[in-house]
Design brief:
single chain; Rossmann fold; 15 helices
C-alpha cells in the first residue's frame, strides 16, 4: 500500500514531512515506512524527475520499496507533485501495479488565502512581480483544485483520493500532522504523542518585501533574515489579508465558486460549503480605507524594524 501526499503548496507540507522523518522509527514499528528518497524531509525528487524526464532513480527506488514490502504501508510526500505542469507527467509514469495500491492525500486551502501565502513566499525570494493581481491571474490554474484532482482521479480513481480542507477548524485536533495521521488511520493504531510545530505568523507584505531587499543588498539568504526577525519582538511586522483588498478576495472566491462546488459534491457531500468564507461578509476592518491604513502602519513598522534586525544579524553595532 502506498499513501502519496501531494500537497498542495502552502498547506503545512513541511510540518507533515518533518513529523514523518523525525518519527520514522516509531512509524516503522507500527508498519508505516517513510523511506529516505532524497535530501531533507520531503520526496520532492519524485516530482523533479517526472518534470525533467531522463533518469528516474528516485521513482524506481520508491517502486521497489512498495513492491518489496507488501505487508507495509509506504508513505511518500511531495507538494511539488500538485503543480499543474507536473501532476499529469507524474501519474503517467506510474506502473499499473503501483497505481492499483495507491491512495492519494492532499490538503486544499481557500484560494484567496492560498494566493496571498504564495505571493508572499515568492516576494520574499524576489521571484514574483510586484503586482499581486497579475500574479494570481498567472497562477490561476494552480488553484482550480477540482481540475487538478480530475487528473489524479483519472489515474487512481476518485475513491482513492482523500482531499482535506486546510483550515484550523477542519483539521483533526487543529493540527495538520495529527490530521494526516488520522487519514492514515495511524492515530487509532497507538497512542502517539508528538511535538507540534508552531507556525510563525505571516509577515506583512511590506516587511516581506523588505526581507527580499535586505537579502539582495547584503547577500544574505531571505530565510536567515526571516529567522532573525522571528527571534525579535518586533511590533507590527506581522499581518494577514494585506495582499488583496476585500473586493479582490471576494472576486477570487467567486471565480472558483463553480469549481469548488463540484469539488464539494464529489468529495465533501456531507458538508454545506467547501470553505468557510464568513469573514468575507464581515464589515469591521475590511473596508478599503482600513486596508490602506494597515499598509501605512506596516510601512512604519518595517522602517522601525531595520535597525534591530541588522543588529541581530551582526551587521550593526549597538553603539
Amino acid at each position: 500500500m502506498l499513501f502519496l501526499h501531494i500537497g498542495s503548496p502552502k498547506t503545512g507540507s513541511t510540518a507533515i514531512q518533518w513529523f514523518l522523518r523525525s518519527y520514522s522509527s516509531e512509524l516503522a514499528n507500527h508498519g508505516y515506512l517513510y523511506p529516505d528518497l532524497g535530501v531533507g524531509y520531503s520526496h520532492n525528487r519524485l516530482a523533479q524527475e517526472a518534470l525533467r524526464g531522463g533518469e528516474r532513480n528516485t521513482l524506481e527506488t520508491l517502486f521497489s520499496v512498495v513492491r518489496e514490502n507488501p505487508d507495509k504501508k509506504i508513505i511518500a510526500s511531495s507538494e511539488m507533485i500538485f503543480r499543474r505542469n507536473t501532476i499529469k507527467r507524474f501519474f503517467d509514469l506510474l506502473p499499473e501495479d503501483i497505481k492499483d495500491q495507491m491512495h492519494v492525500i492532499c490538503y486544499l486551502r481557500r484560494q484567496d488565502i492560498y494566493f496571498e501565502s504564495l505571493f508572499k513566499q515568492k516576494l520574499k525570494t524576489g521571484n514574483t512581480p510586484d503586482d499581486p493581481v497579475l500574479f494570481r491571474h498567472r497562477k490561476a490554474g494552480s488553484a482550480d483544485y477540482f481540475a487538478t484532482l480530475k487528473i489524479v482521479a483519472s489515474a487512481v480513481g476518485s475513491e482513492n483520493i482523500s482531499p482535506r480542507i486546510f483550515q484550523r477548524g477542519s483539521l483533526y485536533k487543529g493540527d495538520v500532522a495529527a490530521d494526516f495521521l488520522q487519514v492514515l488511520d495511524a492515530e487509532q493504531t497507538w497512542n502517539f504523542t508528538f511535538q507540534r510545530l508552531h507556525a510563525n505568523p505571516s509577515f506583512s507584505r511590506i516587511f516581506t518585501a523588505l526581507i527580499n531587499d535586505l537579502g539582495r543588498e547584503l547577500s544574505l539568504h531571505p530565510r536567515q533574515i526571516a529567522r532573525a526577525a522571528n527571534s525579535l519582538d518586533l511590533e507590527g511586522i506581522f499581518r494577514s489579508n494585506d495582499v488583496y483588498t476585500l473586493p479582490q478576495r471576494i472576486e477570487i472566491m467567486q471565480e472558483y465558486s463553480d469549481s469548488n462546488e463540484m469539488l464539494r459534491k464529489e468529495y465533501f457531500s456531507d458538508e454545506d460549503v467547501l470553505f468557510d468564507v464568513s469573514d468575507l461578509k464581515q464589515n469591521t476592518g475590511n473596508s478599503e480605507e482600513d486596508w490602506l491604513k494597515g499598509r501605512l502602519e506596516d510601512s512604519h513598522a518595517a522602517a522601525r524594524a531595520v535597525a534591530p534586525l541588522l543588529r541581530r544579524l551582526g551587521l550593526l553595532s549597538n553603539s
